[in-house]
Amino acid sequence: MSDERRKNKRFPVDVPARLIVGNESLMGRLRDVCRDAAYVEANRWFPLQTPVSVAMELPGTGGPLEVRGTVIRLAPGDQGTHGLAILFEEVTPAAALRIDFFISQQEG
Predict the structure, then answer these.
(1) What is the pLDDT of residue 8?
(2) What is the percentage of the chain residues whose pLDDT exceeds 90?
(3) What 8-state DSSP symbol labels residue 80?
(4) Do the beta carbons of residue 65 and residue 55 sit within 8 Å?
(5) Domains of the chain and any CATH numbers
(6) I want to staple 34 with a disulfide (CB 3.0 to 4.6 A). Which of 8, 83, 92, 96 is the partner?
(7) 3 state SS of 103
(8) CB atoms within 10 A of CB 31
């Protein structure tokens, strides 16, 4: 039996992402995304439950988008980075459509 608790399947991606917390902005790498969450690696982490916006550009979806969420998990990243799992909370219909489009391209 799997211990997988995710509602949606994750899809790997490796594109630049910007984390925005208050007035602070930090560049990182988006490593995977699903319909309701993202995993970003950056040079530092933010505590659990920190509200954060993720600015990203998913390949083939027509430009950058920004989604608000909360840090729900921390993990060691690759090459000394810090991994942050971010659960989306505020996704505009346009952003949801673009995320779904990216996912449908990965599935098919």
Answers:
(1) 78
(2) 76
(3) G
(4) yes
(5) 11-107 (2.40.10.220)
(6) 8
(7) helix
(8) 20
DSSP letter string over 42-94? ESS---TT-EEEEEE--TTSSS-EEEEEEEEEEEE-GGG-EEEEEEEEE--HH
Task: Return the bridge partners of 24, or none.
Answer: 21
Closest CA to 18 of 59, 65, 63, 81: 65
47-71 residues labelled b (16+ CB within 10 A) or e (exposed): eeebebbbbbbbeebeeebebbbbb
Q: If you count them, how many residues does the chain have?
A: 108
- Res. 58 pLDDT band, cuts 50 70 90: very high
CA distances from 55 to 12, 32, 108 (A): 17, 14, 25
Tell me, what amino acid is at 67? V
Q: What is the pLDDT of residue 90?
A: 84
Quick one: pLDDT band at residue 5, thresholds 50, 70, 90?
low
| pLDDT on residue 12 | 93
